[in-house]
Amino acid sequence: MLDAEPRRVTIHAADGVRLALHHLGPGNGTPALLLAGTFSNHTFWLGTRGTGLARALAGAGFSTWALDPRGHGQSQWPRRAERWDFDDWARADLPAALASAAAEAPAFLIGHSAGGSAILAALAADPALQRAVRGVVVLATPAPWLQPWRGLLARSIRLASLLLGRFPARALGLGPEDELPGVMAQWMSWNIDGRWRGDDGADYAARLRDVRVPFLAIAGAGDRYWAPVPACRALFELLGSADKEFLLCGRDTGFAEDYGHAGLVISRGARTEVWPHILDWLRQRT
Q: pTM for the complete prediction?
């Protein structure tokens, strides 16, 4: 593990929004770009006491980059008139971060939960990005329209987020950051409508058949609410890659526990059971 603090690099999305990238590891290593999900930021990957997945990757020789998407961490926060949503993460922030991280060589992309969805939406929206991608790993990433958010609950979350100007994740104990209202509203709309479409009408689900980079999807058997196994499997099946693997982490598949949503990345068990599989998969494609 690496105990050093990451070096922050400031970049800008195509629309001028200032973004923070956090770098660990050798500059000449194979790049790996990490994106956390909602209610979180780059610290999700750094962990505590020097035990984060980003540090493990850097210690293994990867040039590791963790992105704070707009409205999170040390990136720019919205002004009153700005209405950023999930599409901004996928189609502005992720491409800008990839251009920086993969400036010298194609990068691996690693996303947790909605971070994985943003990665896949970016590749679906702009297939040319695949030239800068060595492979994709998503953890606890569901097909957005197959989560158990339906009807009144989804509509209530959408309405509350818009009225409050944020989703109060901290007060609910869901993570270190409240979520942008546009991000939550767009995600809930996908659940309500049963379709995964961009602001411009792009059908992300249909376009995933043209995403052909190596792909590893990891799901937790104990993740029954945020990213249920059937929803993760459904997303996996949409990918057009010939090199793809689905890993279910639970007792029935030989793991010591049925991993939950965040525990798939940040638990003590994940360090010894899940991280090594990720590292082996990356090395085989390096």
A: 0.97
